[in-house]
Amino acid sequence: MKMRLPAALSGFLAGAAHAADLEVSVEIPRLNVAEYHRPYVALWVERPDQSVAVNLAVWYQLQDTAKGEKGATWLKDLRTWWRKAGRDLTLPVDGVTGATRPPGTHSLTFKGSRAGLAQLAPGSYALVVEMTREVGGREIIRVPFEWPASGGAQTAKARGSHEIGQVQITVKP
Amino acid sequence: MLRNLTILAGAIALSPLALQAHRQWMLPSSTVLSKADSWVTVDAAVSNELFYFDHVPLRVNNLVVTAPDGSRRQPENVATGKYRTTFDVHLPQPGTYRIASVSNTVFASWKENGEMKTWRGDAEAFTREVPANAAELRTAKMNSRVEVFVTAGKPDTRALQPVGIGLELAPVTHPNDLVTGEAATFQFLHNGNPAANLEVTVIPGGIRYRDQLKEQKLTTDGEGRFKVTFAEPGMYWINATVGASMRGPAPAPGPSPSGPNAGPRTGGGPGPGPGGRGFMPSGDRSSYVATVEVLPQ
Fold it and tell me: Which of A38, A78, A133, B90 maximizes the CB count within 10 A of its CB?
């Protein structure tokens, strides 16, 4: 117990040094197509060199299909995420991976104390959103932001052109 | 003389090694897969247009499938049709697989009782069938490797370790980690040593639907390395050749660049071919083809 205390304490202090929270809203557009499947979605924080700083969320089909096909088979179709992070992970990842979601705007809050964000050094980053849809298209967009927020809450927006709707990120001090 | 030339022309038309006028290739159904226990199916053909099977199938007498742990896997459902060969490969382990069609052939000619004899077969059969004390013995080794790389999960390089025979592509950039706009570096090895100043040809697939070949001619540096940037996503054909041309008549007999016992002995290969075809290449030759997939950013 004595051994663990300093580690726990230092982790707390590191988190406390810039305890900003990330609020993200992501719109999955309602598409008028003959065959619609919910998209696979990946959200992550990217460094200026395009390496992955933090995996925030990955939504994919967790259950096997009626035919016994594994939903993880198509994770590679989140091409950029797969190459930069997915193939190095053992899935599912607690607090990151989840089921696919229906069309609409999904609001997510990522606490600054969360693993990854707590260790995120101050600097320039981008929120990356990648979506890919079975028998549909794929799109990736980047929303730049500064971490942590200086002054008040900082908000940035972007909109995809075909697979991704409105994306908004707010960095709260 | 005329008769000899006719025989030679016939030999070139029949030999699988003589299809240099066309392009040999394999094309996997996927190169990047999410997880182990996946399957890929591979087409193998020889054609001018990449990657359309419209000429002859690639004869895959010696398929060498190397698993991520270095073990060999057997291809399944191998079938050769009019225009292409197809086969399936099961990928039970995570990691990178190397799927190659390899041939190592020895050509020999010698004088016996005043008569010229010629022979063709693999290296093992050579020691068995060609008299060791043959007079005026000349040999030439022909090596060909046509391969693809497939990764289930995270790419690794154990299956990509050089075999040390003929031309091989050693990864600097992993062959299943290629995207548009990022320069990739590879190294060519010849018999395990860096192949410096080697001309490398890189051609994107989809030739049928464009007017320009879009071929890149690159030259390896002193370490056998070359750098290539892929403008468009898709399948790319990478080719290099060292040694004597297989086309045209063989030149007059001269000193062979290698003795019958030089170089590694390999099993497999196309097996002893019908001897006495009268065909004798002018020297050793090695050709290499890889098909790699480039994904969009």
Answer: A78
Inter-chain CB proximity B154 and A88 less than 8 Å: yes
Q: Specify the DSSP element, H or E, that contains B91.
A: strand B85-91
Q: Quick: pLDDT tens for B103-130.
A: 999 999 999 888 988 999 988 888 888 8
The answer to whether residue B8 scores a pLDDT higher than 60 is no
A74, two tokens: 């198509």
Is residue B270 situated within a structural domain? no
Distance from CA of A84 to the nearest CA of B (A): 10
Enclosing domain of residue B76? 2-103+141-245+283-294
Q: Which CATH number fits domain A18-172: 2.40.440, 1.10.3470, 2.60.40, 2.10.25?
A: 2.60.40
HSE (CB half, 13 Å, CA atoms) of A99?
Answer: 4
pLDDT tens digits, residue range B243-288? 866 554 444 443 333 433 333 333 333 434 444 456 778 788 999 9
Q: What's the Cα-to-Cα distance from A121 to each of A21, A54, A173, rounded to whole Å?
A: 14, 11, 14
User: B218 lies in a domain?
Assistant: yes
Of residues A65 and B162, the one with the higher pLDDT is B162
Answer whether residue A106 shows pLDDT above 70.
Answer: yes
Looking at CA atoms only, how far is residue B160 from chain A in angstroms? 19
**Interface predicted TM-score of the whole assembly (ipTM), two decimals:** 0.82
Closest CA to B266 of B281, B286, B238: B286
> Which H or E run includes B116?
strand B115-121
- What is the domain count for chain B? 1
Residue A120 DSSP class: P
* Number of cross-chain residue pairs from A and B with Cβ atoms under 8 Å apart: 26
Nearest C-alpha of chain A: how many angstroms from B99?
21
* Chain A positions in Cβ-Cβ contact with residue B38 (cut-off 8 Å): 73
What are the tens digits of pLDDT across the range B128-163?
888 888 889 999 999 999 999 999 999 999 999 999
